[in-house]
Amino acid sequence: MKRYATVEDYVTSSENWSQELIYLRSILTETELEEGVKWGAPIYMIDGKNVVGIASFKNYVGLWFHQGALLKDKGKHLINAQENKTKALRQWRFNNFEELKEQTDTLKSYIAEAIENQKAGKVVEMDRAPKPLILPNELVDAFTKDKELEAAFKGLTLSKRREYGEYIASAKREATKMSRLEKITPMIKEGIGLNDKYK
């Protein structure tokens, strides 16, 4: 998908949907939203936070409400373009200019609600389940032989423990795993993370 530097470039480049995009843009620029471009398409924000985007595709032109799942959507206009993947984003599609004109008042009310939600700080909470910590057998065996090493390892942050576990597990040969274990043992005991020197 081509990326555009300005909203004007995006709108005028659309052969089939320029009228609809110009109209949608006129509605959005009447609000307090700040206009910009992100990911090569027009975006409308409050304090740098995405509220609404507009885009044209082969068969339709649409608005993207970045926290659309929070909108009341009494008219059932919003769809989740990626069911079971997208939690917050919702899209309203229009197939022609007449359809867009007919829905102008309702669309404006959705935009107003999206603005109020953003100003109120309402966001869809994302599931951020941490990745499980999986330790390679070589490391687990080393802990049974060296309790000081195990205690020091448990004292590290989860991300540092994960880095060490992945460092050993990613080695293909057993000899490499053991040489890596030998290298990191003093680092773990000193409470140093594998990548601390790069941070």
From TrEMBL:
Gene3D superfamilies the record matches: 3.90.1150.200
InterPro entries: YdeI_bac (IPR016786), YdhG-like (IPR014922)
Pfam families: DUF1801, OmdA
Domain (YdhG-like) ranges: 17-115
SUPFAM superfamilies membership: YdhG-like
Annotated protein name in UniProt: YdhG-like domain-containing protein
Annotated organism of origin: Flammeovirga aprica JL-4
Highest classification ranks of the organism: Bacteria, Pseudomonadati, Bacteroidota, Cytophagia, Cytophagales
